[in-house]
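Case study 2.
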Amino acid sequence: MSETSNQSHPPLDAAAREQMRQAIIQNLRTIYDIEIPINIYDLGLIYNVDVKPTGEVAIDMTLTAPNCPEADTLLAMVRERARAVPGVTSVDVTLVWDPPWTMESLSEAARLELGL
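Prediction:
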């Protein structure tokens, strides 16, 4: 699902796109899974954050389980937090199931926090 702004912006160079990508990741780290007290980025639910020169953002993410009751809420929060970054012109979040999420997806920080 995508939301687009009709404002025109000059193309972003590689450094600006990476800076925007890092700002989006920081914002995504403020979203926590309700079942596991770890943010969704360190939990490994975010597979890809791609920022185009136009400011369009494509995010691939998964969930810990296909029947997650909070799926719609999490997807909306991801869109909202990505859109909050200055320069983002649109956000498209795609829910993917391949590869499936496993505990191996956890970041090192998440493993330490969980005592794994």
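The first strand starts at residue 2 and ends at 4.
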